[in-house]
Amino acid sequence: MAALAALAVVSGCTANAVDARGRKPPVRVEGSAGAKGKDDGKAVSPSKDGGGASGSAGAGKDGGKPAAEPAEVLWSRGDRGDDIRRAQARLHQVAWLITPPTGTYDARTVAAVKGFQGKRGLPRTGDLDTVTWQRLRRMTHEPAAWELYPYGGQPAAKPDPRCMTGRVLCISKTSRTLRWMIDGRTVSKMDVRFGSQYTPTREGVFSVYFKSRHHVSTIYHTSMPYAMFFSGGQAVHYSSDFAARGYYGASHGCVNVRDEGKVAALFAQVRTGDKVVVSW
């Protein structure tokens, strides 16, 4: 135990200014595929009859230019779902929506859409119609998972088969979640983040070998409360940086938890020797 404690003392995990997938935030790409809309991800038709927003609706009364046909509204205030979350992430990419995606078309989303429309000479309706949506898609890229859930809340992935027996900290890099499981039953779930591509969180099957309630990293001199070490200097612990910045940062290899209450309860239940599974 003295050797193990010494190993833990030289641990070091702290915040790292990269995204939660361990990479720099993706560069905006023009003309990339858009979020799945009401047409299951296919190109959205500008109008119900396949015509453009300025398509012909028959010749005008004066025999001149045809009257413009209004664009079809795809989403508007009050709508909810994954489509809205993807649209909000795209609005965030072009800095019209500052708050993170919520999946609810609220007043802030209406204001963001109006701003985006007005800047491009489109009718400022606040509704995401086909013309606005196509313009937004052309200017943005398909949102990554960390952009859709920058502050957590992503549904937990199905437990790894290795988590189904015994007492296990079941950690999924896919959904960025931790399940505390006992004999196949999920006791609690919480959001987590991982190390960057330069200091990745190790994957595999481990066990908790040392616990430290008030741990401080001797490498980075940062606080690591409720630390449960499972692989060298890597531990599950509370991170105030994760609580503040979400997935716009990363650890130096540890598994960060953003909910202090949940990790405190977890720390009280976990025993030395309990299994830890980290997987995709």
From TrEMBL:
Ranges where the record places region Disordered: 15-80
Residues at the active site: H237, C254
Domain (L,D-TPase catalytic): residue spans on this chain: 167-279
Pfam families assigned: PG_binding_1, YkuD
Xref: Gene3D superfamilies: L,D-transpeptidase catalytic domain-like, PGBD-like superfamily/PGBD
Biased composition (Gly residues): 49-61
Protein keywords: Cell shape, Cell wall biogenesis/degradation, Peptidoglycan synthesis, Transferase
PROSITE patterns membership: LD_TPASE
Example of a GO biological process term: regulation of cell shape
A cellular-component GO term for this protein: extracellular region
Annotated CDD domains: YkuD_like (cd16913)
Domain of life: Bacteria
PANTHER family, per database record: EXPORTED PROTEIN (PTHR30582:SF33), L,D-TRANSPEPTIDASE (PTHR30582)
Name of this protein: L,D-TPase catalytic domain-containing protein
Originating organism: Streptomyces populi
Organism lineage string: Bacteria, Bacillati, Actinomycetota, Actinomycetes, Kitasatosporales
